[in-house]
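does this look right to u?? methionine sulfoxide version
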Amino acid sequence: MKKKVKQFRYVRIYQQLEKLIEPVQNPQSSMATITALLHNKFQHFFWTGFYDLKKDKLLVNCYQGPLACLSLQPVKGVCWEAVNKQKTIIVPNVHEFPGHIACDSRSNSEIVVPVRKNDKIVAVLDIDSRDFDAFDEIDAENLQKITKLIYSK
Ligand code: SME
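got this back:
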């Protein structure tokens, strides 16, 4: 996907999400709406969803795509890496990522973005693609901006 096309699509998605999320302000509804919109606007998103951080576990929340692992045990995989390093992780080839958790063997690349509530990570947004190298800084910046809508008030 061309970088300009992708950036433009993210701008439109953000505008739409702002309008939908702001008047309701319910994190669960926001996450469901973000998941649905992203998954349906980007054809190369194969699995799109959230994992909640609960004590020492990451538990699946709303998602779109094939069946996923319900619980990600610490401390391996891309989602835990995002929690532990407290930053967005982009993996161009998941088969080369030590400890990657393959909920579906068709996934080839992945991005994980931490979701913060009052500066504390409470969840992660995880997106998988069947394409290799599907995610870049444009995805990271825009998805970070989108996840900030969840606990903005
Ligand atoms: N691949 C993730 C697990 C979640 S699935 O991709 C939906 C990981 O390594 O943490």
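The longest helix spans residues 3-21. idk if thats expected tbh
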